[in-house]
Amino acid sequence: MAVPSGAHAADEPPVFVLNSLQADVSVVDPVTWAERARIATGKEPHHLYLTPDEKSLIIANALGDSLTFVDPRTAQVQRTVNGIVDPYHLRFSPDMKWLVTAANRLNHVDFYRWDGSDLTLVKRLATSRTPSHLWIDAASRTVYSSMQDSDELVAIDIPTQTIRWRTPTGAMPADVYGRPDGKLLFVGLTGSDSVEVFDVSGAQPRSVQRIQTGKGAHAFRAAGDGRHLFVSNRVANTISKIDMQELRVVDSYPAPGGPDCMDVSADGRYLYVSARWARKLLVIDTQQRKVAHEVRVGKSPHGVWTLTHAPR
Question: How many Å apart are CA 251 and CA 176, to the nearest integer?
Answer without folding.
Answer: 20
